[in-house]
Recover the amino acids of this structure.
C-alpha cells in the first residue's frame, strides 16, 4: 500500500482513506491511545464515518502518580474530568460507535482483539520507555496491511527547542522515563528503534505540523 506524502495528521487521514479505497478497503475499526480532549478522535470519526463500526478511546483521564513524569497533559483530576466531558461532547454524533477504555494504555490494550484495527494512533506517553511500551502493546492489535501511527515524533532536546521557539514555558522533560531512567530519544527514539528492529519504514509529516506525526505500515 502506498500512502501519498502528508503535510499533517489530518492529511494523513485523507491520504490513508484514499490508499485503502484504491485497494478496495476501508477503515472499520480505529483506536486512539491518549485522547485528551478528543480533537483527533473527532477527526478520525469524521473522516471514516461512512465505514466506521467502532472507535476505541484509550485514556486514563486521571493524573499520573509519579514524580518523574513531566508532561503538560499530566494535569489534576478536575482538569482530566473536564477533558473527558469535552471528548464526549465533541464525539456525540458517533456515540453508538464509541468504546471508551478508561485506564492505563498497557491495561486497556487487552480489551482490543489482536489483528482487528484498521487504524491506531498513539498520542499518550512521550518518554522513551512509555512510548516504546505503547508501540509494542498496540502493534499486535493492527491488521496486516494497516497502519500504526502517532504524534510528536521528536526527541527530548527537539521538544525543548520547539517549546522555546513557540514561546511556551518549558515544563516538559521527555528524557525522564516514568521509572526514573533517562533516555533522550523520547518518542522519536522509541519509534526508530522499533522500526529498525522490525525492518519497517517510518513515514513522517513534512509540512505545517510542528509536532510531527509518524506512521508505520504493518506487513
Amino acid at each position: 500500500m502506498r500512502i501519498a506524502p502528508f503535510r499533517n495528521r489530518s492529511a494523513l487521514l485523507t491520504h490513508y482513506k484514499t490508499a485503502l479505497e484504491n485497494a478496495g478497503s476501508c477503515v472499520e475499526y480505529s483506536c486512539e491511545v491518549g485522547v485528551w480532549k478528543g480533537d483527533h478522535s473527532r477527526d478520525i470519526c469524521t473522516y471514516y464515518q461512512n465505514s466506521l463500526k467502532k472507535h476505541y478511546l484509550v485514556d486514563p483521564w486521571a493524573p499520573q502518580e509519579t514524580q518523574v513524569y513531566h508532561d503538560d497533559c499530566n494535569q489534576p483530576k478536575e482538569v482530566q474530568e473536564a477533558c473527558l466531558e469535552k471528548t464526549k461532547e465533541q464525539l456525540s454524533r458517533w456515540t453508538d460507535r464509541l468504546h471508551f477504555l478508561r485506564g492505563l494504555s498497557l491495561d486497556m490494550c487487552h480489551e482490543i482483539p489482536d489483528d482487528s484495527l484498521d487504524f491506531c494512533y498513539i498520542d499518550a506517553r512521550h518518554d522513551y520507555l512509555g512510548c516504546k511500551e505503547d508501540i509494542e502493546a498496540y502493534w499486535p492489535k493492527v491488521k496486516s496491511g494497516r497502519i500504526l501511527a502517532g504524534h510528536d515524533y521528536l526527541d527530548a532536546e527537539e521538544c525543548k527547542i520547539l517549546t522555546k521557539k513557540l514561546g511556551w514555558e518549558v515544563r516538559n522533560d521527555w528524557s525522564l522515563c516514568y521509572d526514573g531512567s533517562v533516555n533522550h530519544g523520547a518518542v522519536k527514539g522509541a519509534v526508530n528503534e522499533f522500526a529498525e528492529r522490525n525492518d519497517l519504514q517510518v513515514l513522517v509529516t513534512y509540512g505545517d505540523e510542528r509536532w510531527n506525526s509518524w506512521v508505520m505500515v504493518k506487513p
Summary: Residues 61 and 80 are 5 Å apart (CA to CA). The chain has seven helices and seven strands. The chain has a mean pLDDT of 93.
